[in-house]
User: What shape does this take?
Amino acid sequence: MEHDQFKFIFKMAAVQGGMVDAKDELDIKSEPPSDGFGNSNANDGRLLSSSPGAGTGGTATGNNKPAPGPPEEQQTLLAVLQFLKKSKLAESAEILRREAGLPEDALDPKGTDASGSGPGLAAGSGQVDGVDASSLLSRVTVSSSAAAQAPKKAGEDQPDVSVVLSAYSQQGDPSLYDAYYSGLKRFIESVLDCHRAELSQLFYPLFVHMYLELVYNNNESVAKAFFEKFSGDQECYYEQDLRILSSLTKKEHMKGNETLLDFRTSKFVLRISRDSYQLLKRHLQERQNNQIWNIIQEHLYIDIFDGMPRSKSQIDAMSGSLAGEARREANKAKVFYGLLKEPEIELPLDDEDEEAENEEGKPKKKKPKKDSMGSKSKKQDPNAPLQTRIPLPELKDSDKLDKIMYMKESTKRIRLGSDNLPSICFYTFLNAYQGLTAVDVTDDSSLIAGGFADSTVRVWSVTPKKLRKVKSAADLNLIDKESDDVLERIMDEKTASELKILYGHSGPVYGISFSPDRNYLLSSSEDGTIRLWSLQTFTCLVGYKGHNYPVWDTQFSPYGYYFVSGGHDRVARLWATDHYQPLRIFAGHLADITCTRFHPNSNYVATGSSDRTIRLWDVLNGNCVRIFTGHKGPIHALAFSPNGKFLASGATDGRVLLWDIGHGLMVGELKGHTDTIYSLRFSRDGEILASGSMDNTVRLWDAMKAFDDLETDDFTAATGHIHLQDNSQELLLGTYMTKSTPVLHLHFTRRNLLLAAGAYNP
Amino acid sequence: LSGSVTMAADREERRFAEVSRDSVKLMAESAGLELGDEVAALLAEDVCYRLREAAQSSAQFMRHAKRKKLTVDDFNKALRWSNVEAICGYGAQDAMLFRSVKEGELFFVEDRDINLIELALATNIPKGCAETMVRGMFTLLSSVVAPCSVPAAVQSLSDDLLKYYQQITRAILGEDPHLMKVALQDLQSNSKIAALLPYFVYVISGVKSVSHDLEQLNRLLHMVKSLVQNPYLYLGSYVRSLVSSVMYCILEPLAASINPLNDHWTLRDYAALLLSHIFWTHGDLVSGLYRQILLSLQKVLSDPVRPLCSHYGAVVGLHALGWKAVERVLFPHLPAYWANLQAVLDDYSVSNAQVKADGHKVYGAILVAVERLLKMKALSLPQPAEGCSSSQPGCLAGPMGYRVSSPGLSPPPEPLAEAGLGIASHLQAGGAGCQWEEWSPVPLPAMYSELYSFFGDSLAVRFSTEQSFGGFSPCTPSHFRETRKEPLGHVSNPDTTRKMPQLTANLNISPRQDGSPRTDPPPPSLAATGSVRSLARSSMQRSRASSSRSGQRSIGLSRDVFPKARFTSPHSGPPTFSFVIGGRQMGRRCQGRRPFQTIFVPTPPPPVVLPRVYTHKLPVIGRVCKPLRRWTRSHYSLHLPL
Assistant: This one.
């Protein structure tokens, strides 16, 4: 009975903990909990039962030792006690206090502090009381995973930190770590070749966790020796993390270290075949190697599959992210990657004859040359979401006009291919003095905008048509509103110029995006805001505040109205232009979100992060529906293929990876760039993929070939293993050097002319 | 942080920069704290860690700014987001000089004082950056341009640019003056040639190979001018190279100057002008440029082996850089230099004729330079008296010193060592060769008297301070006594008292060379001439003339700078000379200072009809203007309108 009561209390505490988090969130960011949040709280609840932390907590209290045991347990009791008192359950509190043999003043904050919860907690200073309480509570309940997914930064994250770190407190003899690790190493080296590659995946997470445990327990010299001895064994793509790790030698430093937190808050995921796993398990049990077994149990998630063990290259292709591979079930959800049906628009018949030959002009949009590649035929694509799955804005008259323009243009589109490469026009920003940070081009290629490190946004007209402001209100009153050219009359000819500068941000502008109708421009900045600018008046309309940290990227939905942003606070947010608060918060990345892209059907959002994963989020419910791992560096460029089926991503590792969204698999790797890839773009019909990089080159890849060669049968296998051929050289169609200009942006005009942009870097 | 960071040399692993315990202790001491060893060690370790952490997070700001170079700004952002105060004062684009002190293994960033007042009062605002702009260009026209996968440096230029480059260079260096003009015009206004800049600079550096061809040199200099004036070009460190080429033209004994018929003087004048233009417009691009230029000019000036034309170049160069440069470099060197020059000028042998002519050139240039110096200095004088406590008149600019007061003039705080990097030989690398000696400004009176001792009256004649006279005269009565005494002493004992070649005396009292000195009319016999009004006017003219282009002026520098005036006075009476210093007249008959109001108007001697030829033979340094009739009619006057 005692036991049951405790269980109940723990559950309560867990819920309370979750709510506290949510409240914190509210205080800090003044946002209501949204779908995303509800979701993650629910996850907390679900994870609770399976969480090993909770398990150990349960057994500890289940034993019901009334004597104040090790400080750990005592604190747990204190926490419970505090909770009871808070909930005005005075009687229960009294009983517990008595049974646990705690002193009367056990809840005195000072006492709590002094009971040695470690410097991590003591440092909380100002809000000692609250921090301690919540941290203690959450310590009991959550020891890993989703709890810390909510955006937390220095200062606010102390509860979490101590939770995370406390998991390291139980441990064995530090001097034996070396032996444990070498023992495992010997074992793995001795197993059959087919298992060795899989089991080798264990090295890195084990190494990191053991090192951190050593550091946490103040065994600095042992930790150093351990690091020296085994860091060389790790895969080269973890080099960056290892460097951070090696700089960390003090327990006191652990609490502020984001990378460490990332590592600790999420379970490292390994994919291992059943056979290999059995082998490992048997070995560890035989050897009584509890230390390692504990780590595996607590900090690792082993995703066991049936079938052939994977090869080294297969493993390498998928690993490299901060938290291991994606779990297979993470990529199981159905994704409606098909395109939405385009609204019917009557094409004026008096146009050129080729348009006259069919009335709706619909099949014309995409010439009926290739059905698979983004043909928007009249019948609903089976993979497409419902037209009304998310509400989209109504088409305005001007939008329809633009659509007609688009169709006309697309009839003149050049059919690209490996033997017919696009012309490339390069827009060079001169005299930018290394200050250009972002570029965007409107869909019709009439405007180009640059975000600058000096906080300005500059918009240029690249056509002879100058940029004009709307007249002032007083002048507008004088206009004859009935006249046919009223839209022309409202413009103030005096303000015509090639360039308009938008002032408003107070930090470098890292992301900009034109709205599809060219009336608005979004910019996201280091100052933590996203601003919406009118391109009619060239003034700022809204400042969206929500990210309290630099916002690295933002993008408009292809249908306008919605936009997505992502930043240093590790969450992506979905906004609508007429709401000052976000509609969805996509939380889950373990590090900064570096780039964000809308799926062409506007139902999904892809985010790339410096945790080296790409996630695909469902706009409707805020769920993460895909996690792609395989990049070895922060991801800086994403592009959806025009048919919505594929995603291309580029990272600091200089590789472009291609992903099949429907199956959630990596389907290609394009090697060639020697530096960070900052821009990716598919041609209008998806035949060519263009990539632009810091290495001052534009490269063109044969996307059609890359996707056509796929053996889609492989995907049906439940294991989801992929065999990538190294055919980058065959797929590379051309490399084009700039003078000394990193390529920051690429854009295909409606006729498939490739525009590239960047700042000349003398 | 700005303090000393020492590397722990004894560490076996050098993966990170380390702040040693001692550094922490030192920093604590400077803040007035005593730290124990243990605390210091702990702190040191923590500081290292925090530094690494900040560096780590600053890298992401760099990545998102799409740069490869981590800037101080990135680091400051990282600090800001971790609630640490940003570091101010390190935002400059230039590389910071990280220096070491050998004893103590101390490393630090050099941090010099900046005169804020000077910066704030500067009227010449450094040229801002050119406007950011977007230009489109085709990289690839499908199936037209065959892409080359590994282009060499030159090939990375598009064909158009290459063609443009060839055309332009051909036009500029070619024969057709009209074509050249067009090309220069285009070079001056074309916005798309940034990529070609290195090539043009390279072409210009070819001055060394065409030193025999004045015409080509001239064209190259014009090319420099066009590049410098192109608003779309960011010259960056190419300024150095351009300056070097220009300096070559100023300072080198060009092969073309062997032939005395070649007017390389004009070239030097033009180059000096160009140098000052580059410096005023682009001097802020390269650190330490001013100092380097001065150093190389100084080196040439102090090198007696160099030919006179080089010295001439150095002087006009200094003059072009402003009076402060003259004061700083030329003036201190004058005594030493003078001996050499005098030797040249005193040698009347035929073989020396050419050299002597060159010497006159130099003399003229120096005279022009020091006159401006005196004038500007006098003008700048009233200001410190008004309220600034500074005792150095030189450090504050006068109202007229519009250029002089620019921040560029006081040598910008720049590392000397950096100067050594990639500078052509014509920019004197700091520290190498001659030392940049400490220098303290000489007060005006002392300067004047010293200069007077060299130039005598020919200096005084030009030294007009009509507006500011009242300003400084009360302060320096002694100075006037001195200057007054000087000529008097000279009168009594012309040949012994002065070390200086008796230039004034010689030229004024020409017959002495021919006849016995005893029969000479007394040297500068003093008579006040003309009205004060005319005097003022003429001095104004003169000042205008002297501040006008030096090139023009030196054109007029004729060979007879110091002519031995060969005229024998047709009249029996002693010729009277008027000697005027800023409204003050001195004369034999008026032994003393006369205020303006009581001008002594001497009885004019019988009018001397001076042949016009002779007016030209008068000591004219500078431009020869039409002599004012009124003056020639009445007297010989040293006070020629110039």
User: Anything to note?
Assistant: The two ends of chain A are 76 Å apart (CA to CA).
